[in-house]
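Here is an idea for our session: we take a single protein and study its fold together. Which protein we use is up to you, so please pick one and set it down. Once you have written the record down, we can walk along the chain together:
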Amino acid sequence: MRPENYQARAHPPSHEYELNFGPNHPGIEGNYALRVRLHGDRVVAARAEGGYLHRGFEKLMEGRLWIQNIALVPRICVPDPSPMEVCYALSVEALCGIEVPPRAQWIRVMQLEMSRIAAHLFTFGGHAATTGLYTNMFWGVADRDRVLDRFEELTGGRVYSIFNLPGGVRRDLPDGFLERLSGLLDYLESRLEDYDELFFRNRVFVRRARGVGVMSQQQALEWGVTGPNLRATGLAFDVRRDDPYLVYDQLDFDIVTEEAGDALARNLVRRGELRQSIRILRQVIERLPAIDGPVRAPIPNPLAWRVPAGETYTRIESSKGELAYYVVSTGGEKPYRVHVRGPSSMHAVQVLERLVVGSRLEDIAQIMFSLDACPPEVDR
């Protein structure tokens, strides 16, 4: 017998059906899923489903020493981990009043822009695969590995660098590193025309991406969109320029924008940012040798470090958009509260659920990859 409070589930009409898109699906970005309701091959409703990967970072950080969290935060966004390290370090430095040596600030900028290049190459490859252009995917992964080679030389780790500490960075540059980085930039710059020919001007990709997942500037602002996804609607907002940190106010670079606000525009913005990151890194290579001095400010014993009571909100620009940490200290050896304001929390949930409605089934993967979200960050 059914209980009194039993309610029969309202089934969709016979011409509508539900489909689980992910988490084990090549067209989904990471361990993530969408439950979509379809009318034929058109999406009429969608619900994002996370929780499959690396959950509860914020609560885990509250149970660890301040210094231990340096090894935890890169896992919040695997393709672009460096901003997570730098933003957390900046938060602790703000609470403690630590002044980072100039040389360390320039090295951090170098690491951030290298990470941006690696992340964008990864995104290009994933998006290309959603339209069957697998050669571009292989190219993107292979060229990203060249960037990771330099990360391994600099930090000892290819993906999780764990290179930034409150007060600076762990070590100075290896001998000859800037020359090898310059050679890498020469190679990447020579590849841009190949990527344009294979992917960005490819008739298949352009026709598939144009007019898909369109988002107006008004919608982007209402939904909390940041980063390349916002700049693809025509708004030239970038934390590096509009609220500069480290030494970005001493660097010359352009804010890349597009107007259409669709999947094509979002990719074109990232393609332009790849060139701008190369431009920034060349300036770092040129100016860093003249900036002498230590790469770390002295800090107390990390295993018994009591950070002064207070709270801070620190933000930077990651490859995915505006990244911020809200950190509260009560004067103890561990954070009292850590909140990660990551761009993927908006892009992969509120925005994705709205943009896929009305699209065709085969465009779901395109829309998600064009938003470039990090599923672990949603599960933080």
In short: The chain has one domain: 55-378.
